Amino acid sequence: MSTTFSIGDLAREFDLTTRAIRFYEDLGLLQPERTGPLGRNRVYSVRDRTRLKLTLRAKRLGLSLTEAKDIIETYDSPRDTGMQLTKFLTVLDLHRARIEEQMADLQANLDEIKVHQRDARALLAKAQAPSPTPKAKKAPAAVNTDVL
Predict the structure, then answer these.
(1) CA gap 28, 49 in Å, rounded
(2) Where are the beta strands (DSSP E) in 1-147?
(3) Does pTM top 0.85 for this prediction?
(4) CB 98 within 8 A of CB 63
(5) What are the helix and strand counts (H, E) for the chain?
(6) What's the fold here for domain 1-61?
């Protein structure tokens, strides 16, 4: 008899909700066998468990579920490891390029924030600096009008 898993087994093992597992099933990432009255019970195979593990790994890498599904499905094809690895590398290259672009955008934002912080600190320091006490002005010399 082959090893099988219930939805609860997988949920506990991977720290997921059963709803998340059903969502992955709806996307076609998992294909459990249905048993019981009206097929209400899901029975997951070792293959489903592996596909779930690969899906979660792809998510950790930041891949979309569609990208994860594309990669995982190549493993269901005949054992052409070259094709599988080529597909995997292509997806990773595209994903890496997106992340590097996002990192460049974030760095530009951080640089702009630093400039604004520096300018704001300078203005604040200027505003909080004690103003110099004005020197007492000499009173204008009295004009002697009798002399004129």
Answers:
(1) 13
(2) 4-5, 33-35, 41-45
(3) no
(4) no
(5) 5, 3
(6) Multidrug-efflux Transporter Regulator; Chain: A; Domain 2 (1.10.1660)
Per-residue pLDDT in tens (0 to 9) along the chain, 148 residues: 579 999 999 999 999 999 999 999 999 999 999 988 887 889 999 999 999 999 999 999 888 999 889 888 877 666 667 877 888 888 889 889 999 999 999 999 999 999 999 999 999 999 998 877 766 666 666 666 665 5
pLDDT of residue 111: 97
The contacts of residue 70 (CB under 8 Å, 6+ apart) are 87, 91
Which residues touch 20 (CB under 8 Å, ≥6 apart)? Answer: 11
> What residue type is 138 in one-letter code?
K
Residues facing residue 4 across a β-bridge: 45
Tokens representing 62 are 């930041």
Residues 5 and 84: their CA atoms lie apart, in Å, by 27
Which region holds residue 4: left if phi is over 0, alpha if psi is between -120 and 50, else beta? beta
Rounded-to-integer distance, Cα 104 and Cα 111, Å: 10
Token code pair at residue 97: 């390029």
